[in-house]
Amino acid sequence: MKRSLRAVLLVLCGLGLLRVSLLTDLCLRYVKESMRPMLIVSGAVLVLLGAASAVLDRRAGADLRNQDDGHDGHGHDHSGLPRVAWLLLLPALSLLFHAPPALGAYTASRQPAKPVARQSDFGPLPAVSPLPMTLSDFTSRVQQDRERAISGRTVLMTGIVTPREGGWDLTRIIISCCAADAQSVKVRVYGGTVPSADSWVTVTGTWHPGGTLGTASAPVALDVQTVKKVPRPVNGYQDALPLPSTLTR
Prior knowledge:
Elements: H1 3-23, H2 36-66, H3 89-97, H4 105-109, E1 131-132, H5 135-144, E2 155-164, E3 167-174, E4 183-190, E5 200-207, E6 221-229
Parallel strand pairs: 1-2, 4-6
Antiparallel strand pairs: 2-3, 2-5, 3-4, 5-6
Helix pairs in contact: 1-2, 1-3
């Protein structure tokens, strides 16, 4: 690899990072929101390094051309990067022109449900219907709330459609740091037609009876009443409440 290509590679990598973190929200497909500033800084540093390298290489090239071949060398620059450095070119171009898709149903269908933190004290549920809930809160209420406050309540949740044998799951993919540590929270859905995989939907329904409510034997499942397709949230890697615009009245 010629020395001049080193600068091009650095600039391409930096521009790719800036595109997905500063100019768009694509970085939220791969990392959590708190890491975004670091990606922006890293992209800017790579661009500056590439520009500085280009200037230095140009000066070095001019010096080589001015050297006497019989004294200081033969007028050629043999410096460069290992061939393995070419492997950075494809990721850089990918970030610039065609970023990989976000994690979705394919990932969730191959993961067990993420264990929900144990709770011993549950407050009263708001007296609204349908009741907006996260998938984690619904799971906790179903399997840990001994007061069985979720019984008979119509709830409203938002997530990804993950097909499974005999039906589908409403899923939320949660990341702690980046896409590599992603885990899924799932609610099995009964009734209605199966929406297309990877669709974002808001559903209403009631707990699907089974086992003993308030214990681990109770299924984390919903008898669906309505299913409404909604846009993907900007940061879909959080188990968040449904957006206000998706709430039904």
